[in-house]
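Complex 366.
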Amino acid sequence: MTRARAGVLHTPHGSIPTPVFMPVGTQGTVKGLSPRDLAEDLGVRILLANTYHLYVRPGPDLIRQLGGLHQFMSWPRGILTDSGGYQVFSLSGLRKITEDGVQFRSHLNGDLHAFTPESTVDVQLAFGSDILMALDECPEYPVGHAYAGESMRRTVRWARRAAQHHSQRMAESPTRHALFPIVQGSTFPDLRRECAAALLDLDADGYALGGLSVGEPRALSLEMVEATEGILPRGRPRYAMGVGMPAELPEYVARGVDMMDCVLPSRNARNGCLFTSQGRVTIKQARYRDDPRPLDENCGCYTCRSFSRAYLRHLFLSGEILYAVLATRHNVRRYLDIMREIRDAIVSVRYPEYLNFVRSASADAG
Ligand SMILES: [Zn+2]
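Predicted structure with zinc ion bound:
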């Protein structure tokens, strides 16, 4: 028995079968892939863009002036934006938290800026995001129980302000934009439960689980998801932010998660780490020097249909742009294939068997 569920998420830019993995387009682009590759070739239904990065450059006013992020980047499908909180809180030393919000300096030029729960809703509405995140504080790991509690309760107060502001803006908006508050509470199950219970009042469109994948052991991340599984409303999507490795995707889904995002498939591709159905391939290794086989014999992507490991290794060692393009295309496809397997297994009521199979396969692959 698992908590895995299959569903459909409806957005103004299309319906999205869940569980879903969202590729990350930090600067309004998934590095190395065109929107046409993503939509038509890979079948991506929704991607994530980073509010902080697009806020500091080119800025929400310019994006709104040019028709919103969908039009700006020529992306016809769903867009989810984070709140900017995670990036701002990664700028340690450059930011100051108050009850009102967070002040920070741009990593580009040191200019002083502020995010409040209200302003980050407005920024994301200027982008025209389909799904917005409420401003949260993502404490670093590890953090003490006292600070984690204080921070989590501030995140709840911020979520209430964001929700109130969002509903006012929606009352006067011709277009629909969902808002998800974010469950925090670091690695303390009692704080996670308190947070989820407090956020229930908002009757939100969906709920995000933040503060995962920030350096804590994996078993602990999964335990934090379990802590709130029974509290969050079953009829709303749950989004685990920033996860995970290929073998972890089925584990989160088994704990009731519907949406995930991660930079790993694209970032690791560029660094030479490729995910295949048979485990990881480090393409620079000498063993692939004259290897004529495709990267992954079980993969139908353009890269695997067309090129040898030897050629990919050559492109990687030569620092060719095409390497990043082909490698990213494969890794994103691998993630999407895993999500398809997951959904098929849920729909055909054999998820526990699927989970056992992938667990033993990943144990074998080390
Ligand atoms: Zn492939």
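The two ends are 26 Å apart (CA to CA).
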